[in-house]
């Protein structure tokens, strides 16, 4: 009989672990934003009583439109994808015919925007945008305030050729600002951010709003505003010239005042920047002489802008001028077709602009905008307000409601037609109301870190803290409102706009 103590010790094995069932990672629409957007549309369609003035089709399209806008704000899918899904819903539910749903894709404004994005590609590809900005830095950059003006004025100079504020921010100016800040040993997200980088970032983003308002082709939403205004019967003669003539004085004043105000309320620790012109000149030397493609890009762009200015006299539509310019760039080899194909922002804009313009146009056709406008105008009329008082209330509401939006173009698509219709119903002069709403669309682009594409780009650099973004956003917004109200109203009276 064996001795128990001599037996080999037994090892106890842990019980086998149960395998947890795991779902594959979800790659589709974000469930919560998707659910909220759909619920908003369904509740409005079936729970809110339909006014007797509107048809069922009009009410149903308004419900889909509200769900579309909710999706633009909440982001269940990328903007273009969500717009396409909602457009599909309008066709599947027979709210719109296929032809009506896609009719806006032949719109001249949309193709003008697409062509303008390709011009942006040319500026960045050839390095012409960088060269212009570096010239201004080398001329004005001996101190921090002068450096700021060099960057600000260079953006204003090239803005009519680059209609994407996001492209200007991410493709040209933020890289230059980063380079200048690093040279001055100013780094993001640490104690040195306010040495130089934070001030330059804020100065650039706050003045970019006025640069975008200065020229019709400086921002895509400007073109959208005028197209929607025409849909409401507002006639705008010589669009490019009219826009510039009306905007020039208040926009220039704002551009010149903003860097100084920021210098006082958000001062940089470094006041002198003797190395900035040296750095700019060094980079210009590395670039060498102006190259063939840069000369061609400059000549073609000046020719195109000239055609935009003289278009009314030549009976040449702006989109045709842009097509001629783009054709020259392709024929001369400054751009190739792969450059156009790879410009995703242009094709994305084509998709969702087409959807939003199409829906907004159909809402106008079906009488929804007219119904909303008359309702608000009747309420304002019950307050015994002169048209100017109602106009100020509507402008303020349109401006500050942008805190709820993450896109300027989304804001325009959602609210521009409705607010312009209210202004017209309140007896405000049509051209005056259309243009001022359009300028406001640019001025609220720096309210927050999410209020526009360029705001997100600059905030993402990490130089400015979130509390400063909101504080400076509202201060400069109020300052711009005062400038445009005081300088603008006097100038517009001289022009006979109202």
Automatic annotation (TrEMBL):
InterPro entries: CitT-rel, SLC13A/DASS. GO terms for molecular function: L-glutamate transmembrane transporter activity; malate transmembrane transporter activity; oxaloacetate transmembrane transporter activity. Keywords: Membrane, Plastid, Plastid inner membrane, Transmembrane, Transmembrane helix. The chain crosses the membrane at residues 31-48, 60-84, 96-120, 132-152, 240-263, 295-311, 317-338, 350-373, 385-406, 413-439, 472-492. It is a multi-pass membrane protein. It is found in: Plastid, Chloroplast inner membrane. It holds the Pfam family Na_sulph_symp. It comes from the Eukaryota. Its main location: plastid. GO terms for cellular component: chloroplast envelope; chloroplast inner membrane. The keyword DNA repair does not apply. Residues 1-24 are annotated as: Disordered. Belongs to the SLC13A/DASS transporter (TC 2.A.47) family. DIT1 subfamily. PANTHER family: DICARBOXYLATE TRANSPORTER 2.1, CHLOROPLASTIC. This is Dicarboxylate transporter 2.1, chloroplastic.
